[in-house]
Amino acid sequence: MAANTTPGLKIQATKQCISASQNISKMSTMSFSFGSKRKSFSDFRSSSHISLTKPIHSFKLAPIKFERMVTKAMSGASEQVPVSGLPIDLRGKRAFIAGIADDNGYGWAIAKSLAAAGAEILVGTWVPALNIFETSLRRGKFDQSRVLPDGSLMEIAKVYPLDAVFDSPEDVPEDVKTNKRYAGSSKWTVSEVAESVKQDFGTIDILVHSLANGPEVSKLLSETSRKGYLAAISASSYSFISLLKHFLPIMNPGGATISLTYIASERIIPGYGGGMSSAKAALESDTKVLAFEAGRKHKVRVNTISAGPLGSRAAKAIGFIDMMINYSLENAPLQKELYAEEVGNTAAFLASPLASAITGATVYVDNGLNAMGVGVDSPAFTGLDIPKDNKS
Fold first, then answer.
1. Residue 262 is among the residues annotated as catalytic for this protein
2. Which one from 272, 327, 339, 364 is the annotated catalytic residue?
3. pTM score > 0.85 for this model?
4. Residue 54: which of 256, 245, 319 has the closest Cα?
């Protein structure tokens, strides 16, 4: 089980002054830590990310200071002392998170929040990134970002090689089988990983899909090839169906699944191309249908989180993410940066008994940007009395 001396999740508000000109703020060891090393987009095919392309033009915002108000997962009870208030308690639960390749994205943040609530953590990592991830984990490179609110370190019970594009060994083409990046790894298709988890642990309670990839994301949708479009759908949305199909038989009744989506599924986001917007729309539609089927057949809930832009390594490698973060700061109802831990804590809530009647839902965690019909930073609104966060 994950090492938590005092499991059970409470909410604690913290303040920190940040600047809107910063895209990633350094966090203390009692919070989440995010690096800024860049890796190629293809290296993180199974990483959680917001895939965006370079802007047609760029703009620079004047630095604006905001007061950071973030809820943090706090362990506040032991086996002897109950948690006061309304706790998120996942003790005795086991979670499998598909799509963690570093300590920087939403998948890692979700794992930390689940661990802070007492869940045991299993991880599925894209095969070509497996060695780097396991080596970094073993050598302590992630230790600072593994620190939980109670001071203990998040423990990962086991890391499995995974490529969710392939359902079974028969689906793997010869060029992938012989690819040197897959050498030394075995049993990494979805069905094989589910079977390995069953043999190792028996059952799970929580399944998290943190996978996305669009090989032609830099292209306009109208210029995307059939192959590129179908690849985006396969890696970013059908992979969730496949995971659910193979893991449902080993999920305990009352379990929960969570995926990650993006507002481009329902609004136009120029630059989010290559069929990625279509893949996210499919993922949200599938969430509703799968909620019905998994709920009726297995008593398992299915929800998705529509997360705002995050400056993760995978997203920053695309080159467009900084503009989206600045756009959100200027136009969202809450003028503050979005932190991965806020998505992580929402996932912990959705996975907990507190959300026992929530299924088939798209939950927005984006500072309210999804509610906006216009961008209020447009010159067209000059002179209009628009409320601003003037805290400094």
1. yes
2. 272
3. no
4. 319
